[in-house]
Design brief:
421 residues, mainly alpha, 76% helix, 0% strand
């Protein structure tokens, strides 16, 4: 069933409601969480903390994001996406309101690193992928890539807008504005999932063979799904864990400190935020194209293509030595931004391909711990390296090495796993 046919009959199919709701919720939560690099620069200026100290909250956030993913996956398998969205929205509002009044580092660690992170996880891919995987089968990569592209939109909007707001009204008032935005939008988003969950699949498809709403003749194969214990007994599970770990390391050795890096070189902060934001917008077509390509050329080749573009982007950053090199800054922003999150659809769809079933949310949640660990080590490690050396050069080189390791691990996933009795 196509979009046009569904709309022409006067109603929108539940699959498209789910896809739209997931996209909107993920865009909102990602925009709030991706604004931290701008706050990092403000915190350094106001409180005089070191780069490593100011990175602690972000590192804790990545650890909590990974560690809480199994719990979030377990909850979504039992409570549904709508309840998780309401819980996450409430935690984000509380965390943003509290952040407007922080005075010490531990408060930022608690509010951003724990409260807001768990809230954002309840509006993340772990919550939406199980439902999307049931509604979209042949085009699973495309559906996941559309939601994942929200990451690029969020990064592209958050950096310049938050930097502009901080310049106009200060960072404390900016937190209050973000809290108001989250509070105003969470209930309308939750209502979309109420409608979708109120329209269950046909009874003969409720045992895991939910048809693809875009192609009714393309149901998910019948059969017993994977359990977490069975998945953990395969090398594929741990290779996926390694892929998530290396991807987190490669991305966050760079991303958290991009604006600080550009400001250190001598670029104007607002200008640099605009350039990096424009580069982040390229993630939208980058994610959609690589995710859709993964349905046709294979998950492995799609992911390798994304890794390659990211490595080129980091190389351009290594070449920047003065604020006159605007072209290199743009090239870095565009190549790195183009594939920010572009591996996500291929990796997530690969997980759904290898381990389908009712425990997919739980399996995906546990594997995502690898991403949390890698992101935490990368974001804090880059700050620590800067404090020791006065440069991000070693951190950027570590990013390239991590991406290369991710390529090797993903390529090893070409053959499907076998259940170990």
């Amino acid at each position: 069933m196509t979009i046009e046919t569904s709309v022409g009959r006067g109603r929108i199919r539940p699959a498209w409601v789910v896809l739209g709701g997931a996209f909107g919720a993920f865009t909102l939560s990602a925009a709030l969480m991706h604004s931290y690099p701008v706050y990092l620069v403000a915190f350094i200026a106001d409180f005089g903390w070191s780069r490593a100290e100011t990175s602690i909250a972000y590192s804790v956030s990545q650890l909590v994001g990974g560690a809480s993913s199994p719990l979030v996956g377990y909850l979504v398998d039992r409570l549904g996406s709508r309840r998780l969205l309401l819980l996450g929205g409430g935690l984000l509002v509380a965390g943003l309101l509290g952040s407007a009044f922080v005075t010490t580092l531990w408060q930022i660690v608690l509010l951003y690193g724990i409260v807001m992170t768990f809230g954002a996880n309840c509006l993340g891919l772990v919550v939406f992928v199980p439902m999307l995987s049931r509604y979209f089968v042949r085009r699973r990569g495309m559906a996941i890539s559309i939601v994942q592209s929200a990451n690029g939109i969020a990064r592209g909007l958050s950096a310049p807008l938050v930097q502009l707001l901080i310049s106009l009204i200060g960072w404390r008032s900016t937190y209050l504005v973000q809290a108001g935005l989250m509070g105003a939008l969470v209930l309308p988003l939750a209502s979309l999932f109420r409608r979708a969950e109120a329209t269950p699949p046909p009874p003969h498809m409720q045992n895991g063979a939910v048809p693809n709403e875009t192609q009714a003749a393309d149901p998910e194969p019948l059969g017993r799904g994977w359990t977490l214990r069975e998945a953990m007994r395969t090398p594929h599970f741990w290779l996926l864990f390694l892929v998530y770990l290396c991807t987190g390391l490669g991305s966050f050795f760079v991303s958290l400190h991009q604006l600080a890096f550009a400001a250190d070189i001598g670029f104007d902060k607002l200008y640099a935020a605009e350039v990096l934001g424009m580069g982040a917008f390229l993630a939208v077509p980058g994610i959609v194209v690589t995710g859709t390509l993964s349905d046709y050329i294979g998950r492995e080749w799609s992911a390798i293509l994304a890794y390659g573009f990211s490595i080129i982007g980091v190389v351009f950053a290594l070449m920047i030595t003065s604020p006159d090199q605007h072209l290199l800054l743009w090239l870095h922003a565009c190549f790195f931004g183009l594939t920010w999150g572009a591996r996500g659809p291929a990796i997530t769809a690969k997980t759904a391909d290898l381990f389908p079933g009712r425990q997919l949310g739980t399996i995906l949640g546990v594997i995502t711990i690898g991403s949390g660990v890698g992101s935490a080590v990368g974001s804090w490690g880059a700050g620590w390296i800067y404090d020791l050396s006065g440069s991000y050069r070693v951190a950027f080189i570590a990013s390239i090495v991590s991406y290369a390791a991710g390529v090797v691990a993903f390529w090893a996933l070409r053959r499907p796993p076998a259940r170990v009795r």
